[in-house]
Write a structure and sequence with these properties.
The chain is of the alpha+beta class. It has helices at 52-58, 99-110, 162-178; strands spanning 28-35, 45-46, 64-67, 74-83, 87-94, 115-128, 131-145, 155-158. It has a single domain (28-178), classed as Serine Protease, Human Cytomegalovirus Protease, Chain A.
């Protein structure tokens, strides 16, 4: 018996995407605390624009950065919270004067911890089979967690990216000057 194996080659796709080159300090991290159009483990799905009114009213300074949703356990501050096409983008800074924040920073760096989760009050939602669609929420806090209810809501970058961001920026300037 002869077995023939054939391979199908697919052409590579080229995609352009916006890129954020804001350097992160040693105690900073960024990621997505919520994703639009994705159901979480409880059946909730956040609609684009659901955070807009809350963010206008509160701003990042009034949204707490907690550990595991424990209100008595603030671990830092949010520098930026914004909706984009993917979901709720966040950039935070851990308060490294606090021992637990230093421990969390080490766990993030090792990849042992990477989940993000939102604490909110529902203002407006619609129900359908499979759960709710959250149309407007009052964002109260965002926590670094071990097990997020929403898969994909996680820290995407940590630590000092200054060298990499500066190198890319310099390379871009050199390439533009050479044109």
């Amino acid at each position: 018996m002869t077995v023939h194996v054939s391979y199908a080659r697919r052409p590579l796709a080229r995609k352009s995407t916006a890129m954020r080159l804001t350097p992160l300090g040693a105690s900073e991290f960024e990621g997505y605390a919520s994703l639009f159009g994705v159901r979480d483990g409880a059946g909730d799905m956040v609609a684009p624009g659901a955070f807009a009114a809350s963010l206008r009213r509160r701003g990042p300074a009034e949204v707490r950065l907690l550990y595991q949703h424990f209100a008595h356990n603030p671990i830092g501050v949010w520098e930026e919270i914004a909706e984009d096409s993917r979901g709720l983008y966040v950039r935070g800074r851990l308060s490294t004067d606090i021992e637990q924040a230093r421990d969390i920073r080490a766990l993030l760096a090792d990849g042992a911890l990477n989940g993000l989760s939102i604490g909110f009050r529902t203002v407006r939602a619609s129900r359908q089979a499979g759960g709710r669609t959250l149309l407007q929420v009052d964002l109260v806090e965002i926590s670094i967690v071990t097990f997020p209810l929403l898969g994909g809501s996680q820290v995407t970058a940590i630590g000092a990216r200054d060298d990499l961001a500066n190198a890319i920026t310099r390379a871009g300037a050199i390439m533009r000057a050479a044109e």
